[in-house]
Write a structure and sequence with these properties.
Length: 122
């Protein structure tokens, strides 16, 4: 398995994990009142916008996904820093978002380098 496919699967797994974790946090893990569950699920809806392109490994969608996941870096870091009872949830959200940003960035870069090396300009 080469580094491009490792970065691809790591970025895809962390992005899908961020979506799954966000939904689990809104439904069961967090102390969200039952009347506000659907509203709190909307907080993770922006992750669904670039999902199709991320599943198909499109560079622009991965780039947009990294920009969207910056919201969750801030949210996770804030929860980790400020909420003593749920710091572990914030740390996990932060870890998933940062993993996607780093792995997605390396995937785009390494694949571009591999494509440039395979097709040198005349």
């Amino acid at each position: 398995m080469n580094r491009i496919s490792v970065a691809r699967w790591l970025s895809l797994g962390s992005y899908l994990g961020l979506i799954t974790f966000g939904m689990a946090w809104a439904i069961t893990l967090g102390d969200v009142p039952e009347q506000q569950t659907s509203f709190s699920l909307l907080f993770f809806a922006p992750l669904l916008l670039p999902l199709r392109g991320i599943l198909h490994a499109r560079d622009k969608s991965i780039l947009w996904g990294t920009l969207v996941s910056l919201i969750y870096v801030l949210h996770g870091g804030t929860i980790w820093w400020s909420d003593a009872s749920r710091w572990h949830l914030g740390a996990l959200e932060l870890l998933l978002a940062v993993t996607f940003i780093v792995a997605g960035s390396f995937f785009i870069r390494w694949r571009a380098e591999a494509n440039a090396g395979a097709n040198p300009a005349p």
